[in-house]
Amino acid sequence: MPQRPGPRPSTTPTNPHTQLDQQPRDDQPRERLIGQIGTLPGVVWAGSMISVPGAQALTLPQGPAQGPPDAFMIGTEFAHLHPSPDQSLHLVLPPPTAEAAIEAGWAEQHPIARLGIISPGAVMVYAPRDAYEADIAAGLVRASYAYAIGAEPPITTGNERGH
To answer: Bias category Pro residues: which stretches (predicted)?
Structure first.
């Protein structure tokens, strides 16, 4: 996984787990991200059952939700997008993928996951600031989706050009 350019953004240390700076200047990265994940097979978009008001959740019907219990935050919700001005995402990744995303600077472990209350693969993926970062974030959502449906995660996490 390529390294995220620049320093990590500031975030809150507890719930609600929020990104405080480094948001995109306009809606184009968010629109690009949603365009790439908006048609994942079987995904039902709904209001998040665990996040702040206005957060959009990616959920699965019970049938396709074949991943392990640790693939979900609550019910069959495996990811959600925070509304503006935050624009970060929370999602659940297989622990090795979560570790790689954290190490490369794209994510941080959710504070409640650090306490062992929710899946250790629950992470905040930082708000994409441009098209390149939207592609990486979309790849991480696809990896979360693969985990939630019980499939092998994709080999790549999006745009693989070095940065």
So the answer is: 1-10
Sign of the torsion angle spanned by Cα atoms 77, 79, 80, 86: positive
Tell me the residue range of the domain where 45 lies: 28-50+57-149
CATH code of the domain covering residue 92? 3.90.1150
In 3-state terms, what secondary structure has residue 121? Answer: coil
Using one digit for the tens of pLDDT, what is the confidence trace for 35-56? 999 999 999 999 999 999 999 9
The answer to whether the CB of 134 falls within 8 A of the CB of 29 is yes
- pLDDT tens sequence across 142-161: 999 999 999 976 544 445 44
Place of tokens 């990896």: 143
The model carries a pTM of 0.92
Report helix, strand or coil for 33: helix
Beta-strand pair 89-92/56-59:
unpaired
Is there a domain that residue 163 lies in? no
Residue 161, domain member (yes or no): no
Residue 113 domain-assigned (yes or no)? yes
Residue whose token pair is 């925070």? 82
Task: List, edge to edge, every strand of the sheet that includes 122-125.
Answer: 44-47, 56-59, 77-81, 89-92, 122-125, 107-109
